[in-house]
Specification:
With 104 residues, the chain is of the alpha+beta class. The protein has one domain: Winged helix-like DNA-binding domain superfamily/Winged helix DNA-binding domain (Arc Repressor Mutant, subunit A). It has five helices and three strands. The protein has a three-stranded antiparallel sheet with strand order 1-3-2. Helix 3 packs across helix 4. The termini are far apart.
């Protein structure tokens, strides 16, 4: 077993706290399909733009999404492949625990 510094374990704990919110998971899942602006995220998730913006700030702070400004429009995307991998592993684990069936 590898030994990790307590600071590293703390950082991992903080990262997983960000994943601990259904709205943020929904945003990350939506961004799996490619970059979206706040307006389109709000439409897709049927939520208010201010609520989406708040969650995006948290996701950006955790390094899970990045923003790209083109003119007046800001689009958001997953920061890198690690984010998609973490999300995929979480979804696979839940499906496995449920016997391989997704209840959607």
């Amino acid at each position: 077993m590898e030994d990790y510094k307590i600071e590293t374990l703390y950082d991992v704990s903080e990262l997983f706290k960000v994943f601990g919110d259904t709205t943020r998971i929904r945003i990350l899942t939506a961004l799996r399909g490619g970059p979206l602006c706040v307006f389109h995220l709000a439409q897709q998730l049927e939520m208010g733009q201010s609520a989406i913006s708040h969650q995006l700030r948290l996701l950006r702070g955790a390094g899970l999404v990045r923003a790209n400004r083109v003119g007046k429009t800001v689009s958001y995307a997953l920061d890198d492949d690690h984010v998609a991998q973490i999300l995929d592993l979480g979804l696979a684990h839940v499906a496995h625990r449920k016997g391989g069936h997704d209840d959607e």
